[in-house]
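Reviewer comment 2.1 asked that we show a complete input and output for one of the modelled complexes. We chose the FE2/S2 (inorganic) cluster case, as it is the one discussed in the main text.
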Amino acid sequence: MSENTMTIKLKIWRQKDRNSGGQLVTYTMPGVSPDMSFLEMLDLLNLDLVRKGEDAVAFDHDCREGICGTCSLYINGRAHGPLRGVTACQLHMRTFHDGETIVIEPWRAKPFPIIKDLVVDRSAFDRIMAVGGFISVKTGGTPDGNAIPIAKPVAEEAMDAAACIGCGACVAACKNGSAMLFVSAKVSQLALLPQGHAERKARVEAMVAQMDEEGFGNCSNTYACEAECPKNISVEHIARLNREYLRAKFIQE
Amino acid sequence: MTLNSKIPDGPIQQKWDNHRFNMKLVNPANKRKYHIIVVGTGLAGSSAAASLAELGYNVTALCYHESPRRAHSIAAQGGINAPKNYPNDGDSIWRLFYDTVKGGDYRAREANVYRLAQVSNSIIDQCVAQGVPFAREYGGLLDNRSFGGAQVSRTFYARGQTGQQLLLGAYSALSRQIGLGTIKFYERREMLDLVVIDGQARGIVARNMVTGKFESYVGDAVILATGGYGNVFFLSTNAMMCNATATWRAHKRGAFFGNPCFTQIHPTCIPVSSDHQSKLTLMSESLRNSGRIWVPKAKGDKRHPNDIPEDERDYYLERLYPSFGNLVPRDVASRRAKEMCDKGHGVGATGLAVYLDFSSTIQRLGKGWVEEQYGNLFDMYQQITGENGYEQPMRIYPAVHYTMGGLWVDYNLMSTIPGLFVLGEANFSDHGANRLGASALMQGLADGYFVIPYTIGDYLATSKFPKVDVNHAAFKDTERDLSQTTSQLMAIKGKKPVDVLHKQLGKIMWDKCGMGRNEAGLKEALQEIPKLREEFWNNVLIPGSADSFNQELEKAHRLADFLELSELMCTDALHREESCGGHFREESQTDDGEAKRDDDKFSYVAAWEFKGVGSKETLHKEPLAFEYVKPSQRSYK
Ligand SMILES: Cc1cc2nc3c(=O)[nH]c(=O)nc-3n(C[C@H](O)[C@H](O)[C@H](O)COP(=O)(O)OP(=O)(O)OC[C@H]3O[C@@H](n4cnc5c(N)ncnc54)[C@H](O)[C@@H]3O)c2cc1C
Ligand code: FES
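Response of the prediction step:
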């Protein structure tokens, strides 16, 4: 535990609601301990604001363990901040230095409208999932779990894709606002597994169509998504999605 | 009112089958005429909503998260149990049943536990079919590991992210039904009250968290799958938003609360580092399979752990429990850690931590092996503490993790309010006084996939439902009352932000109703909590407005309920003058410091009936009979 505290200058996007304009507001935060998490630093700011009778800064968060995908802060121009493979909620203040200015903004993408301050609406992701991000099995009547052996490397690769937390950092990081990394992670997981094969064609077509309809941009292979993904989801899944998509176009099933 | 657990007759192996046969069915063509409201879409709620919609029911599901995929179930790391006996190590439904009843320290209902063990194998099959990428062996078959307290390997897992993968599986089934239009889903809605009409649960009122408006939802039955209440302690391993509001407000409408004092403290969490701490992070107890727990033999030893020689270390769990060693159940491991620290052997800056050491495993199997098994946990530890767990032992300390207590339900998972069903961590059901590792995921999915789809049909088929809509006075009155309470909260404009008061409550609960409990402490807590509640209602400070997105207001509603529930927890803990599982009454222990049950007096479920805020609740007892697993003093020596 460290005794030295830091003073941090924050510039935070404040926006009353979806229809209002917003702007960056500056706050000075003394007494920041390097052992605090980034979100605990925001808690401290909010305690101070509330005590002064001001409205707290709204930000989404829940598990604070890097798994639920709720936190969504654009910190100093980077989705989830400066560290690779780390969500904003796992970031600690020891990553920053005394006197530093930190700019915090929400995810910016047309399909993610701002609800308030740093909170955005990512329900577009749910709508993409609802058209194809599943295997059509009903509850009950499924065969024994060991009925279909799956080679370990295949299962591992499916798991790599399934590790996506659906936070939307890939969209926020992409200059085109593309959701390809998110969509491809699900398509890839289910394309790799034998259970998912029956619906390969319908799945990829439906999910890509919904992605376009939600207004996500095109992928121009700059790979900012992979660089900013807190779960290190690989762009190889995008390549697999493209193959699945082509296959779907040429194959009649 | 007398409690009727509705346990079916017959030998335990046949109860569920007989019951399924005897229950009334709803005609397939009629199913869509019934409207079911599912509150909460974690493992229990998503699996229930999807399964019911598949059957043809008309389902409305809602949650306070922005998406079902964010539910706290996502955070479960270790795994899910099922007695498939794939490893051929002697597992069976009977053994899982036996272990769960024993692990729960003989305070669970045998019939429920047996059913849970019975349906658990189907859960694995279901999840595999959905595409859940469970860990596999090189031959391509599913891998198992052994987990906290079990002597067989029956835990299925997906790296350190089992909860995530299971939830994403249930969420995919839910999403599919949303896409098909059979489920209407509403996100960012927080249920603030239950509506009971003519004795039946007929709907809920929820706050739209974006607009602040109160919205009524009408149905023929209501399912609560709203998770546990560990956050009453402020600091816990639960996600920040986990709360008791849905269950507590249903309790105030007549649903009895079962065993509220049964909370689980998890032994392997990252210790508290400062006052700013907002939550505690669990490290999967699978770490105890390979790590060894120790403290320095000398009190107050401030040396670096790597400088403390082998013979000056006390591997106290291995010493006290030679046959189970580091794998004793959670309650035992937690209590012993506290005891070591209370005696002055604790380590780290606060003295409230013990070491979890991987050096001998690294020596034996190599760092690469440890990395492959637990890499993500070591990374997480380093991210939070700044220390490298491969190079020096990790520091761990127990933290609140799970609540075995919850709304009382009968064998059909129905509460004492007809038409109100409760699933998952929100009910009190299957874990008795202590839950074994990897069994909450199992229970949530058993309830949702394999129990409620049958039992709710029987209720619907045998009840009458007068026509009701959102204009019914009961809905309008509830909306009006909620809007008044909200205005009242906003108008207090006192001096203390919600979190400050919540931390005060947490401290009272941790000190007096935490790992060790005694009469004097509980009586003090019962004095302090009403005072704090009064302070809350006079001095809380909520900024912003009620008719917009306002996270401080959300927290205030939740804290208001914690401030009532906490009192009931202490009342329950005070009345239960025995130790059992996670409930350790210091007055009731054996000579060597183990929990001592009093089966003659306390072999029952305590189901509490609400009688008004601040009034003592009425205790109802559901006696527990153990026909198949004879109660004995748990021993892990
Ligand atoms: C860190 C951690 C690790 C764990 N690891 C394991 C493990 O390895 N194995 C295991 O078996 N168990 C584990 N558990 C326990 C297990 O994860 C939980 O008990 C289980 O997931 C609870 O599932 P649930 O569906 O009952 O509730 P939750 O997943 O908590 O879902 C609750 C749902 O209800 C909604 N909700 C709540 N209140 C309201 C309201 N008022 N209005 C509207 N919606 C509401 C929420 O939005 C959410 O959708 C772990 C728990 C923790 C904390
Ligand atoms: S809060 Fe859950 S991932 Fe950050």
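Chain B has a mean pLDDT of 96. We note this here for comparison with the apo prediction described in Section 3.2.
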